[in-house]
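Batch manifest, entry 17 of 40.
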Amino acid sequence: MSETTQTLTPLSTQAERLIGLGVHEIAGLSAAEVRAAARGDGDVLLAVRPDLAPASVLAPLLRRRDKAGFVVTDMTDVDLFAPLDTVGLPDTPLYVVGGVERGDGMANWSPDEALPALTAASRTPLLLTEGIHWVLQRPDVLERNHCFMTIGSRLRRPDGTLDARTPALWISNGTGRDGRERREAPKVGWCWAGNRHTWLGFASGSGRRALKPWEEARSA
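Output type: structure tokens
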């Protein structure tokens, strides 16, 4: 699938998908609040703020060939991967990301190389939770040899420096600690910031925008 065909369904359809999966309950929102916010058209991705719907809870909702998604066993701190300081994250529970791309053209780049290139191109790297939301809506954006990193989320050490791991989503081969039963399952894992992988692009968007009509439903 080429990047030009990775369109998204209308916001109202995306909202119903999240409601059907129970994501609104995870985030402490009502179905009415989600529906009230998800109005309008445009090829944008509906997302829930990561502190309300963390990656560890969203990942098992992913599906590929009836296999549930999972987080790799050596990433128990996955929910501590927070937005980079340069990521302008709206403070509303629900928001949208525009112009989402998988970044196939950056395959075989390292995260350390990709981040400044995305910034120079006025692109914003996707957060891990945004990447999961994207695959929840479009499972087919994960393809063999065409998966993606989400380097907008990084873990900061106590001394303020960044942990060398960078999160990504790809398809399990069912080897090692994944287990044979997880072959073909969507997988949340990590790669070193200085390493390159021919099968991982760098997912990004053109920007984020807050969705505020949910407040009207809450006060109704």
